[in-house]
Automatic annotation (TrEMBL):
<dbReference type="InterPro" id="IPR004360">
    <property type="entry name" value="Glyas_Fos-R_dOase_dom"/>
</dbReference>
<feature type="domain" description="VOC">
    <location>
        <begin position="4"/>
        <end position="117"/>
    </location>
</feature>
<dbReference type="GO" id="GO:0046872">
    <property type="term" value="F:metal ion binding"/>
</dbReference>
<keyword id="KW-0808">Transferase</keyword>
<dbReference type="InterPro" id="IPR037523">
    <property type="entry name" value="VOC_core"/>
</dbReference>
<dbReference type="InterPro" id="IPR051332">
    <property type="entry name" value="Fosfomycin_Res_Enzymes"/>
</dbReference>
<keyword id="KW-0479">Metal-binding</keyword>
<dbReference type="GO" id="GO:0016740">
    <property type="term" value="F:transferase activity"/>
</dbReference>
<dbReference type="InterPro" id="IPR029068">
    <property type="entry name" value="Glyas_Bleomycin-R_OHBP_Dase"/>
</dbReference>
<protein>
    <submittedName>
        <fullName>Fosfomycin resistance glutathione transferase</fullName>
    </submittedName>
</protein>
<dbReference type="Pfam" id="PF00903">
    <property type="entry name" value="Glyoxalase"/>
</dbReference>
Length: 139
């Protein structure tokens, strides 16, 4: 039986730029790196960066809604998003759902989000204003 998300592997086109972004700007913990890859941690999540010659920058307009959301505490949200804006990250979406969220791109165009909140909070908000056709698990 599945127990949870083990790790994410992201193909990157420039290892140095990606390490600067994920370790330097986002402050993920660098656990190991080598010529064509790196392992970082973010809480219990293990993130692998893998250099891939086929990887090309993908603009937000040319990609689908797939994105990776990271949890952040509410007291850190404003200062963290301010730092991202000062660094010139590209914003790909404005938040329209429950909880504070900031949507931005990494150097290769991977869609990322930082989010304040939990699934329980999201479901509670959706029970008040459900998405069209939304059905909830019965207790």
């Amino acid at each position: 039986m599945l127990q949870g998300l083990n790790h994410l592997t992201l193909a990157v086109s420039d290892m140095a730029a990606s390490l600067d972004f994920y370790h330097g700007l986002l402050q993920m913990d660098l656990q190991a790196h080598w010529e064509s890859g790196a392992y970082l941690s973010c809480g219990p999540l293990w993130l692998c960066l893998s250099l891939d010659a086929a990887r090309r920058f993908t603009s937000s307009e040319d990609s689908d809604y797939t994105h990776y959301a990271f949890t952040i505490d509410s007291q850190d949200f404003s200062s963290f998003t301010h730092r991202l804006c000062l660094a010139g990250v590209t914003i790909w979406k404005q938040n329209r759902s429950e909880g504070e969220s900031f949507y931005f791109l990494d150097p290769d165009g991977h869609k990322l989000e930082i989010h304040v909140g939990t699934l329980a909070q999201r479901l509670s908000a959706c029970r008040k204003v459900p998405y069209q056709g939304m059905v909830f698990k019965k207790n």
